Amino acid sequence: MMDEAARLGLVERYIAAYNRFDVDGMLALLAPGIRFENHAGGQLTAQADGIDGFRQLAEHAAALFREREQRVIARRSEAGRVVVEIAYRGVLAADIADGPKAGSVLEMTGRSEFAFADGKIGLIVDRS
To answer: What mean pLDDT do residues 32-44 have?
Structure first.
């Protein structure tokens, strides 16, 4: 069983790798059966199961941005999970079909929930 410090450390390392566009660094922290979900406006907008599915999604997302940063503004442990409140800022590297153009700055706040399996991150649910 992981203690709170170990869980928080994993989440901090994951967010640091995300901010560096280090997909391999992110993957190294994930359990083989990782489940990822992104919810925007109450709708499920992206999901991935397993390391390969997560890699595809993470590489696609990384290619969309010239810059990106998740900044933790609050965090708490809740029933063995870590919940972080995030301030997000990204600069698009490419135009989004029927959406913002390359160079547009996206800013939002959201919440990420992390659950753990076998000493690694086993579930990530992002909500914005």
So the answer is: 96
Closest CA to 70 of 27, 21, 23, 29: 21
User: For residue 31, what are its two tokens?
Assistant: 């359990």
Which tens digits make up the pLDDT trace of 57-92?
999 999 999 999 999 999 999 888 999 999 999 999
Is the whole model's pTM more than 0.90, yes or no?
A: yes
Q: Residue 34 and residue 48: Cα distance in Å, rounded? A: 8
pLDDT at 39: 96
Q: Give kind and range of the element (H or E) at residue 82.
A: strand 81-92
Calpha distance 5→11 (Å, rounded) = 10
Cα end-to-end span (Å), the chain: 30
CA distance 8 to 81: 9
Place of tokens 């999970």: 81
Which phi and psi angles does 87 have, rounded to 5°?
-105, 120
Report the sign of the C-alpha dihedral through residues 99, 105, 111, 113, in that order: positive
